[in-house]
């Protein structure tokens, strides 16, 4: 494997077994470089055509500046090991004739803390479904619900609220299904990897949203000042929701990295770039919508600034010829109070 360390054992013509370490940065003999890694308790023997060898080395080499100093082993992270066999090996003046002819079909994952090893497996279809569900939830539905609440309030009616609620609940439901798929396929729920930790945090933040929505204070009527509890709830709801989406997107990227590390899939890098492109596209759309929203609010403030007299609690869209308006006018006349409302002049 290119850009990896290798340990080679062979029995020389003198019958003595040897073990040496190398750094591989190419696919030819010129890409194999001997190292001076500190290995001890070396044993190598050949019996019935089978070569076995063992050695001891520090997990964290105490050196700097050399390539072998980077060969640090973390006991909590599975090691990927592949094997290869060739006809001969000399350790000096390597040529292509020294190269191996038989290799392992897939890596072996060695778990040092458990003292076990298992063969790498192809990407399981259920885990692929898990990843797709999480992308739909955290990449489409939940961000879409936030964008609906942010940019569709200018529309008439409460359509923005219905879209917001439906997208949020749909995203949470799909997220839970994705978690169940992964837990069932892996036969357990282990909070060990970075991906799972970010996923659990995103799940908790997402679940908090419908819970705190149940306890939201009442919305103030037109013209009333929002209560302190209402303001605090709105800040909490917005911050929690946006934090959940950010953590969820980080979980998506860590999940891609976890798949690449676990299954060594060739498509993981392409999928990661596709995910990055999707996230950047959403960010560009949000920036454009935010720009339009700011312009709209500035325009609304400018329009209200032309009113000199009138009922400031009434919406700009109220039709003065509407029967309700006539009723209000008659009520005002009965009480002896006259209202004067001026409209902005158009030039």
UniProtKB/TrEMBL annotation:
What the entry lists under CDD domains is as follows: Cyt_b561_FRRS1_like, DOMON_DOH
**Gene3D superfamilies (UniProt xref):** 1.20.120.1770
Q: State the InterPro entries in the record.
A: B561A, Cyt_b561/ferric_Rdtase_TM, DOH_DOMON, DOMON_domain
Which residue range or ranges hold the DOMON domain? 1-86
Compartments annotated for it: namely: Membrane
Q: Where are the transmembrane segments?
A: 132-152, 164-183, 232-253, 273-291
Q: Where is the Cytochrome b561 domain?
A: 94-296
Look up the domain of life of the source.
Answer: Eukaryota
User: What SMART domains does the record point to?
Assistant: B561
A GO-annotated cellular component: membrane
Keywords, alphabetical: Electron transport, Membrane, Transmembrane, Transmembrane helix, Transport
**A Pfam family of this chain:** DOMON
Q: What is this protein called?
A: Cytochrome b561 and DOMON domain-containing protein
Q: Which organism is it from?
A: Zea mays
| Lineage, top ranks | Eukaryota, Viridiplantae, Streptophyta, Embryophyta, Tracheophyta
């Amino acid at each position: 494997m290119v850009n990896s360390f290798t340990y080679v054992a062979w029995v020389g013509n003198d019958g003595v077994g040897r073990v040496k370490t190398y750094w591989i940065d190419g696919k030819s003999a010129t890409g194999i470089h001997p190292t001076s890694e500190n290995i001890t308790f070396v044993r190598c023997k050949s019996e019935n055509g089978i070569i076995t060898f063992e050695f001891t080395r520090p997990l964290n080499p105490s050196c700097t500046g050399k390539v072998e100093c980077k060969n640090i082993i973390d006991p909590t992270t599975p090691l990927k090991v592949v094997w290869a066999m060739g006809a001969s090996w000399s350790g000096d003046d390597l040529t292509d004739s020294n190269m191996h002819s038989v290799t392992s079909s897939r890596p072996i994952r060695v778990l040092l803390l458990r003292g076990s090893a298992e063969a790498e497996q192809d990407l399981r279809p259920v885990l692929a479904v898990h990843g797709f569900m999480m992308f739909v939830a955290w990449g489409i539905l939940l961000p879409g619900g936030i964008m609906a609440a942010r940019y569709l309030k200018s529309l008439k009616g409460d359509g923005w609220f219905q879209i917001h609620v439906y997208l949020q609940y749909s995203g949470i439901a799909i997220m839970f299904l994705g978690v169940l798929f992964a837990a069932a396929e892996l036969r357990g729920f282990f909070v060990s990897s970075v991906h799972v930790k970010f996923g659990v945090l995103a799940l908790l933040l997402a679940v908090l949203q419908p819970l705190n929505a149940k306890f939201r204070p009442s919305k103030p009527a037109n013209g009333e000042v929002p209560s302190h509890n209402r303001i605090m709830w709105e800040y909490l709801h917005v911050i929690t929701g946006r934090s959940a989406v950010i953590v969820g997107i980080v979980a998506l990227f860590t999940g891609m990295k976890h798949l690449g590390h676990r299954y060594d899939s060739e498509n993981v890098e392409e999928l990661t770039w596709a995910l990055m492109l999707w996230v950047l596209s959403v960010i560009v759309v949000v920036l454009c919508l935010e720009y339009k929203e700011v312009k709209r609010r500035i325009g609304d403030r400018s329009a209200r600034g032309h009113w000199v007299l009138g009922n400031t609690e009434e919406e700009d869209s109220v039709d003065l010829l509407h029967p309700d308006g006539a009723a209000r006018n008659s009520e005002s006349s009965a009480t002896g109070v006259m209202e004067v409302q001026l409209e902005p002049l158009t030039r």
